[in-house]
Amino acid sequence: LATTPLIGCKARPQKTSARFAQFGTLVDITIWDLPPSEAERAISTIQRDYATLDRDWYAWGDGELGQINRTLQRAIEAPVSAPLGTLLQQSLQLSAASRGLFDMRIGPLVELWGVASAPTTADGSTPPSDADIQVALDRSRLHVDVLNDRPGWRIRTEAPGVVLDIGGSAKGAILAHGIARLTTEGVSRALIDAVGDVAVMDPQSGTPFRVGIQPAREGEPLRLLELQHGETVTTSGDYARYRDIGGGRYAHIIDPRAGRPSEEARSATVVHGVAARADAAATALIVGGAAEFEAISDAMRVDTALLFDNRGQMRATPEMQARLATI
To answer: In terms of DSSP H, where are the helices of the chain?
Structure first.
């Protein structure tokens, strides 16, 4: 499943929309009830912010997180800025809530399976050996603390070799940052859509936004979902990023317990008021699959969640079921 751009909301004057490329995808921002010049200025601010986050939050680039990961290959401690430190600390808390199904220490396994970027075609390679998987698993289980016990934040690990990857919660954090920035820019009604991960704000009218959840597989119906002010919907799926290895198709979502790409579900969609929690929960649910759907939803305190398992069967919490409409 992948949520589509806005399908409908109450008609409003002064609608301004823009699309730009960032985070390896397309970002759409729509603002209502502002003169176009002011709305365009706010969107330009978001675009600059997102360019910075795209650099600084990518685990293998030249930005802050990439530099931290390179430091942690030879040392057990690295400084971190307050914004990134706060997100990393939140990611540790979400990992604990997910019972380890979402884990930002997954970087060594992402590197091993080669699923850090866009889809790739068959390249003649073979899947990693059990021995190599175990080495990466050991590195991904090294203890990590994110500390603010001195002037400035720092990350401390029990041994070198950690690679932090916040891809499982970054989409939500990016949307939350965008909504917060729009608020400071004087925007009161807006929607941000990063190819299906959607955040909305409209504190005054109370009119819900209607968002389409587009099928990932042929034959599945299109569903509509209503979002209220302050909510975010995020989807994790096995169709967006993957790698073809030795004739097999391996999704980019790794099961931190087994060290292998998850095969338990096709997609998971979560609605929540805390965007990073929605994103991390969607990741954890797709790893846990149908067998752990209720347990993980409860543990991560998400009451609006939807899962399609690896047989295409749908599971939904009562709150999600009540919100869905099929067209």
So the answer is: 36-56, 64-71, 82-97, 107-113, 130-140, 167-184, 275-288, 293-299, 318-323
